[in-house]
């Protein structure tokens, strides 16, 4: 199963999404027998890469936030004493 195939949410995979949707439109019956399987595999790989990039960006953002919070806690502790 894949996430909803909206182009604005997956700009990295836009080309593959369009190909996959076109395949489904052109082959309404044979899509159930593996006609579009290669494109589906390609789409899944693209989604994995996209997710890995998002995960890395979120991790970097969380590291910055943790550092900011630690600095703020340290500053607050120094001011209280």
From TrEMBL:
Q: Which cellular components does GO assign to this protein?
A: mitochondrion
> Any signal peptide, and if so, which residues?
none
Q: Does the keyword Zinc apply?
A: no
Q: Which UniProt keywords apply?
A: Disulfide bond, Mitochondrion
Entry's localization field: Mitochondrion
The source's superkingdom equals Eukaryota
- Give the protein family: Belongs to the CMC family.
- Pfam families assigned: Cmc1
Q: What is this protein called?
A: COX assembly mitochondrial protein
